[in-house]
Specification:
Elements lengths: L2 E4 L5 H26 L13 E4 L10 H9 L8 E4 L9 E3 L5 E2 L8 E17 L5 E14 L4 E5 L11 E6 L5 E3 L3 E6 L6 E9 L5 E2 L4 E6 L4 E4 L5 E9 L2 E17 L7 E9 L8 E9 L5 E3 L11 E5 L5 E4 L3 E3 L2 E8 L5 E4 L1 E7 L4 E4 L3 E8 L6 E14 L16 E7 L5 E2 L6 E8 L4 E7 L1
Length: 458
């Protein structure tokens, strides 16, 4: 997957067409197997052991944001990712008769108090496997609003195939301990295919089979100390396709995720706003583009960024701090359904090659960040029609410039004779009394009115 070609299928409609075509082809293939064998139920077990790519190196100290991100993403490894075997059970794809009636999720935005959460999960991305063919799961960060109604009902947005499906909400309710309990098997979308119409439902995966939907409720456990909700760390949350074959509903595991958690955004520190400059390199793109990006820094200097890929404004990413103040983005985060962010290097022959990470190099003079020449950032996917890899979007000549240069990260020209004051700031721009553990910004003020700011690591 090193040598990659460009893809220009940038329109959502084309992605929907590919999805529907792939779905129909898949169902026709299954139907032919069933007719050939005269069996309604085909059980395919002993598939593959899921291998998970985790991210880590999030600060373990402090409260709120640090604790939530640490507990969700911390594993034995770094943001560059670490593959670990998650369970001896096998996650596969099989079919099962669906006897229980299915309930449809709420399709109209529910009424109530909407609370904004940072959602974290680790999910399957089509076509990404290791050398031995094992699946790899990648982390995904996004903002979602959970609606708390006056009657005790709670509505959680569907988290699967959100670029394809219309919005819907899983209906649950609060139990006595404040946990959100969601009935299994709620339908979040339907495909009106004339050959084989299908519904898509959300349930836990029955780990006894590794492929069937569980009838157990989906429980998001409330953590009062972090003001967050968590799915059990050993639970797999699945999206199941349910199609009608000769009047009998047949269920098939379509995709799944683990490590689902929701952290209240009230725990997030104040964001620092940047102008984001870039050149769009894909077909029909323009040079000299500009948009807005926010960075939220924790106490260790790790940054939570709004999308560094303008085509995916809702995607969030984590960047790891370096000793010189630079930020490193690893090619691990899901930015859209079946797409991950990818660092890219330009080859001498004009081609492109994937890279493990890209550095946003820090400039202490003005507090800006810039990606080195010849390095790009794109959204990497594997085409389900032919198995080849490519990009919908590629960006180069990238830089982030603070919208409001202040004493933090800003140097004014002039002589530097006579330091009259020294001030300390954390990475979110708040002034502190002295340098704290982690990355600090030290601002020196001189007698002639000039000042100088540098990042230091304690």
């Amino acid at each position: 997957m090193d040598e990659l070609s460009h893809f220009s299928c940038k329109r959502l409609e084309k992605r929907k067409q590919i999805f529907i075509f792939a779905f129909a082809f898949k169902q026709m293939f299954i139907l032919s197997l069933v007719l050939l064998s005269n069996l309604i139920l085909l059980i395919m077990k002993h598939f593959f052991i899921t291998v998970v790519l985790f991210v880590a190196s999030i600060s373990a100290s402090g409260q709120g944001f640090n604790d939530f991100m640490h507990s969700r993403l911390q594993r034995d490894g770094g943001l560059r990712g670490l593959k670990v075997e998650t369970d001896s059970k096998r996650i596969g794809t099989s079919m099962k008769k669906q006897n229980a009636p299915m309930r449809r999720a709420v399709a109209v935005e529910p009424e109530g108090t909407a609370r904004r959460f940072l959602m974290v999960d680790t999910e399957q991305v089509y076509g990404f496997t290791d050398e031995e063919g094992y699946q790899i799961l990648y982390p995904r960060l996004r903002m979602q609003e959970i609606v708390f109604a006056d009657d005790g009902k709670v509505y959680v947005p569907n988290m699967f195939l959100t670029s394809i499906f219309d919005p819907s909400w899983l209906e649950g309710e609060l139990d006595e301990e404040g946990n959100i309990v969601i009935e299994a098997g709620q339908t979040v979308a339907s495909i009106d295919d004339p050959m084989m119409p299908a519904d898509y439902t959300v349930s836990l995966v029955d780990m006894a089979t590794g492929s069937d939907p569980s009838s157990e409720p989906i429980i998001l456990y409330f953590d009062e100390t972090e003001n967050a909700y968590y799915l059990d760390e050993n639970a797999y949350l699945g999206l199941f396709s349910v199609y009608n074959m000769f009047g009998m509903p047949i269920t098939q595991l379509y995709t799944y995720c683990i490590g689902v958690a929701y952290g209240d955004t009230a725990i997030l520190p104040e964001a620092v706003e940047y102008d984001y400059f870039y050149d769009e390199m894909t077909e029909g793109g323009s040079l000299g583009q500009k948009t807005d990006v926010s960075l939220i820094f924790d106490e260790e200097g790790t940054a939570l960024s709004t999308s560094l890929l303008p085509a995916h404004p809702d995607a969030l990413m984590m960047l790891e701090p370096q000793e010189d103040g630079s930020l490193t983005l690893y090619s691990t985060f899901v930015v859209d359904d079946d797409m991950i962010v990818s660092a890219v290097t330009e080859e001498p022959d004009g081609g492109y090659k994937t890279a493990a990470w890209v550095d946003y190099v820090y400039n202490a003079g003005d507090g800006s960040y810039k990606v080195a020449e010849g390095q790009l950032v794109g959204d990497l996917f594997v085409d389900p029609m032919n198995g080849s890899a490519g990009y919908n979007n590629l960006y180069s000549n990238i830089s982030l410039v603070p919208k409001e240069p202040t004493g933090i990260g800003h140097v004014e020209a002039g002589s530097k004779a006579g330091i009259v004051a020294t001030e300390y700031y954390d990475m979110s721009g708040r002034r502190i009394s002295k340098a704290a553990k982690g990355i600090n910004i030290v601002v020196k003020k001189y007698a002639d009115g000039t000042r100088e700011a540098v990042k230091t690591v304690k």
